[in-house]
Design a protein that fits this description.
Layout lengths: L2 H15 L3 H10 L11 H5 L1 H11 L8 H9 L5 H17 L31 H23 L2 H9 L2 H11 L2 E11 L4 E12 L3 E6 L4 E5 L3 E14 L1 E11 L3 E4 L4 E4 L4 E8 L4 E3 L3 E4 L5
């Protein structure tokens, strides 16, 4: 396959998985690396000083196109994270090359068997009309995947479609200090059903969560006071500013603080302690501040 097709496939997979922009760049770069064994490939022409000797030594679509080589690179991600994405990008290249007429000796160095994905009539040559059609199709998937990626990937899309509170809660944990809202339907303990959008503040108890109802200026404690019938997370581009106090402080701006059991709301001028978070943190210290802008609330 031509280089743009490999890049489109890697980006489509990465976007659907909801990976970061940095990881997408590494996936795209990795998707070109196996073709370094061909001097006429896009990357081979750039890195010809590697490509020519590699081609002479190993040939094209043999050991440099092997699952073992790039699987080992991906496993090295245990120690160096970028290697994971580079390796996965290279593995996506090999999978796509299984559609090539000539196939790939993907099991090298353990076997010289030529591996293919479909019967010959369903495979095609690199740079052919079918390759260009595949590029367009994968480009559309990459574009669609980018939208899904902004939601947090396929699992997040599943959460939006199903309204699963469990998925929304897990996404909230993964968001860390990113300011997030939860939209959906709440059933209160008195039987009242409420539809709306609430600011997610922090964890409470086991699988508990504190929500801020801005309209009523009150905190809802889940599951003590209510539970979600349906929910999905909406992340923002902002992050909470956080403080961990060893004692007491007076906040100059609206904030929330965790008293060890529940999250509480603090108006400007109120006393806060413990874990404190706000959009714009400004406090008058009445005790030593242990850490600022930390995570893990």
């Amino acid at each position: 396959m031509i280089a743009p097709t490999h890049i489109a496939f890697a980006l489509a997979c990465g976007n659907l998985a909801g990976v970061s922009a940095v990881s997408l760049n590494l996936l795209a770069a990795g998707s070109l690396l196996p073709d370094i064994d061909h001097p006429q490939s896009s990357i081979g022409r750039i890195l010809f000083f590697f490509s020519i000797p590699l081609n002479r030594q190993f040939g094209h679509r043999r050991i440099i196109h092997g699952f073992a080589l790039w699987g080992a690179v991906a496993l090295a991600g245990i120690f160096w994270t970028p290697a994971l994405w580079i390796g996965l990008g290279a593995l996506s290249h090999i999978v796509l090359d299984l559609l090539n007429i000539s196939g790939v000796q993907a099991l090298m160095p353990f076997s010289e068997k030529v591996c293919v994905l479909f019967a010959r009539k369903w495979r095609f040559a690199s740079g052919s009309r079918q390759d260009l059609v595949l590029l367009v199709v994968l480009g559309v998937f990459a574009w669609a995947g980018n939208y899904i990626g902004t939601l947090g990937g396929l699992r997040a899309l599943t959460g939006v479609i199903t309204g699963s509170p469990r998925i929304a809660y897990q996404q909230y944990l993964e968001a860390g200090t990113q300011i997030s809202f939860i939209e959906g339907t709440l059933r209160h303990r008195d039987g009242r059903i409420e539809h709306g959008r609430w600011l997610a503040i922090g964890k409470e108890e086991e699988r508990g969560l504190a929500l801020w109802n801005e309209k009523r200026q009150e905190i809802i404690h889940l599951p003590r006071q209510a539970e979600f019938l349906s929910a999905y997370l909406k992340r923002t581009g902002e992050r909470w500013q956080t403080l961990s106090l060893t004692g007491w402080a007076r906040t100059k701006r609206e904030a929330f603080f965790f008293d060890g059991e529940f999250w509480r709301h603090a108006e400007p001028g109120s006393i806060v302690f413990g874990w404190v978070l706000g959009r714009e943190m400004e406090v008058e210290a009445m005790a030593r501040v242990r850490s600022q802008n930390g995570g893990g609330f």
